[in-house]
TrEMBL record:
This is Siderophore-iron transporter Str3. Coiled coil: none annotated. Residues 30-44 have a biased composition (Basic and acidic residues). It comes from the Eukaryota. InterPro entries: MFS, MFS_trans_sf. GO terms for biological process: monoatomic ion transport. Residues 1-51 are annotated as: Disordered. It is found in: Membrane.
Length: 634
């Protein structure tokens, strides 16, 4: 690149990858044809992205953009991506082995039915945590927030590994899930920070590719430590509460060092422009504050009060659905009634607070546009239908199918392998077609075929039907999940990207938590009833409760054919409901805007192009700017 230096603000607006793209001329022509006018037509024009200062940026956003100047082209950016890859590999190995231990941990204490309650709580946490994490990442920094998430992950797994009662298992699962959700969320945000729309799907797929390898490695790890035995799962949890933090230390070191340098550079660059970023506003306002004032500042910026109202509201509304079959009197139990009433009050209070009183509302109105709402609808129905099946699917398969522990683990990872394996192909397809909408609709249609096969499995659970159902679901999910992220992240400016993604995750979690609650209610009612019908003449009520309370016992109970029949009939209607609900995703997907995917960071800020500069170019331009600054002072 030659010629006069560009304004420094364009350092923060001109980001990653290549100097020359072989099809960039065609892409630019297509983008010009559909760009600003198309964006305005879809409601994007209200951002007025060309106006300086129209959208102020938080400190974390400015620093991640300055990070590209710190690394530039060369070893810095290679180390950066290598660190992300290392995080992805170790984390995927953890997820591939530990994701299914909860059912065995609860069964060890004779409390397998609690798995539904854990699922609801974790789904709520998975929805409420990303907004907190997104705000922290914006006003603090990406690497520091990721470090906090890793610490929570390790503490939660340590609690599970050493648990002496079911309460500790539940508490450990919740703490771990905050960290786990944070790691997943922060990885996706950092990838989105550093990639253009046209390469984002591929980059995300590449980072998740280790899941394909580790899905097969996981079966041998689980078998060797006998993880599905009464206490073997403890080693499974304990192993990764040590391995993950240690393995992620080099990656975090690279990110933290780069972020420290980017912090000074980002503030320096902001001072040299007329654009007033939130970086300066925050750093200036925090100087001289007392500890209490700083606490109030962050409490307000995080909208912590509103998010707590929302989290406790959803928890109180949904948890009774998992407890009604075991609580005395069901829904007439005074405790459950109180939870429902309090939950309703808290939920309404959250809506009132967020709409009228919150200085920094959970969901800024400016992020609302047709594509954003359509993608939220797609993922809501996607996860709602998924968890009507998935909440107890692995437990159901463990009982009705006679597989070894290794093969059982392989089966549980089929969806992950299919999603991560096919995602690379679809990422490249999006890169060269520059489109995502119709690919998503095709993927959702294939997923419906998989849901239909899952329903068929309740009548004939053959190996072929079960495996193909998971392959189809994974194939469709590979397209749909990343397409929703592309749609949401492309429809908002960089400043709002993290919170918009968090809102998408929230409604996905709301959908999954509602369906887990429904599924848990059905499981807790239908399975005992069918066990009584088929085995009531053979076993007394205490023995039947023991069979229901542990999938170990259920799988070993005779007559085996009657146990299988009881479990298959118990889930028949639930799986059919999941199939019907899955059509909702397609209906929502039709309304998304099919905008052009090019080298821009998003479809709003036309000036933010992803292109890394080399070190020499960066140094020359920074020196030029410093010279100008000294001249102006003199």
């Amino acid at each position: 690149m030659s010629g006069a230096p560009q304004p420094v603000r364009e350092h923060l607006n001109t980001l990653a990858f290549s100097e020359n793209d072989p099809i960039q001329a065609e892409a630019e022509a297509e983008a010009d044809k559909e760009g600003s006018e198309g964006n305005a037509e879809h409601g994007y024009g209200k951002y007025n992205p060309g106006a300086e200062g129209q959208i102020t940026q938080d400190a974390g956003v400015t620093r991640i953009e300055a990070l590209y100047l710190v690394f530039g082209k060369g070893w810095g950016i290679y180390a950066f991506w290598a660190s992300i890859g290392l995080i992805a590999y170790v984390y995927s190995l953890s997820r591939s082995t530990t994701a299914y231990y909860a059912q065995f941990a609860t069964s060890s204490f004779g409390e397998h039915t609690v798995i539904g309650t854990i699922g609801v709580i974790n789904a709520i946490v998975a929805g409420v945590a990303p907004p907190f994490i997104a705000k922290l990442a914006d006003i603090w920094s990406r690497p520091h927030t990721l470090t906090l998430c890793v610490a929570l992950y390790a503490v939660g797994y340590a609690m599970c590994a050493g648990a002496k009662n079911i309460q500790t298992v539940v508490a450990g699962q919740v703490i771990y899930n905050v960290g786990n959700t944070g790691i997943t969320f922060m990885n996706s945000i950092i990838i989105a920070d550093t990639t253009s729309l046209q390469w984002r799907a591929f980059a995300d797929a590449a980072v998740n590719l280790p899941y394909v390898v580790n899905a097969f490695v996981a079966g041998y790890i689980v078998e060797d430590i006998n993880a599905y035995s009464q206490n073997g799962w403890r080693w499974g949890y304990g192993m990764f509460c040590i391995l993950l933090p240690v393995a992620m230390s080099p990656a975090l070191a690279v990110l933290l060092i780069g972020d420290y340098r980017a912090k000074k550079l980002g503030v320096s660059l902001a001072k040299k422009t007329e654009v007033r970023t939130q970086t300066l506003n925050d750093s200036e306002s925090l100087k001289g504050m007392t500890a209490w004032q700083k606490f109030r500042f962050y409490w307000t910026r995080l909208n912590a009060f509103g998010l707590l109202l929302m989290g406790f509201g959803f928890a109180c509304l949904l948890t009774p659905m998992t407890l009604n079959t075991t609580a005395k009197g069901g829904y007439t139990n005074p405790s459950l009634i109180a939870m429902l009433v309090i939950g309703g009050i808290l939920f309404i209070s959250w809506l009132v607070w967020d709409c009228f009183f919150a200085e920094y509302p959970f969901m800024p109105r400016r992020v609302l546009n047709r594509t954003f709402l359509a993608c939220v609808g797609v993922d809501f129905f996607y996860f709602f239908s998924s968890y009507l099946v998935n909440a107890y699917f692995t437990s159901w398969v463990y009982v009705v199918v006679d597989w070894s522990d290794r093969n059982y683990t392989f089966f549980n990872n089929i969806v992950t392998v299919a999603m991560c394996g096919f995602a690379i192909f679809f990422g490249l397809l999006m890169r060269y077609t520059h489109r995502y909408k119709y690919l998503q609709l095709i993927g959702l249609s294939i997923r419906i075929i998989g849901m239909g096969l899952t329903y068929h499995a309740t009548k004939s659970p053959t190996d072929a039907v079960l495996v193909m159902s998971q392959v189809c679901i994974g194939f469709g999910g590979a397209i749909s999940v990343i397409s929703s992220y592309i749609g949401v992240q492309g429809s908002v400016p960089h400043q709002d990207m993290a919170i918009a993604t968090a809102v998408l995750n929230l409604w996905s979690s709301i959908g999954s938590s509602i369906s887990i609650a429904i599924s848990s209610s059905v499981w807790n009612k239908e399975v005992p009833a069918h066990l009584s019908t088929y085995l009531g003449d053979t076993y007394n009520s205490t023995e039947l409760a023991g069979i229901f309370g542990s999938i170990y016992v259920a799988r070993a109970t005779e007559p085996r054919a009657l146990v299988k029949q009881a479990y298959m009939e118990s889930m028949n209607k639930l799986f059919l409901s999941a199939l019907i609900v899955s059509f909702g995703s397609i209906l929502c997907g039709i309304f998304a805007s099919n905008y052009y995917l090019d080298q821009k960071h998003n479809a709003i800020e036309q000036h933010k192009i992803i292109k890394f500069r080399n070190k020499k170019e960066i140094e020359e331009e920074l020196k030029e700017k410093e010279k100008e600054e000294r001249s102006s002072r003199d």
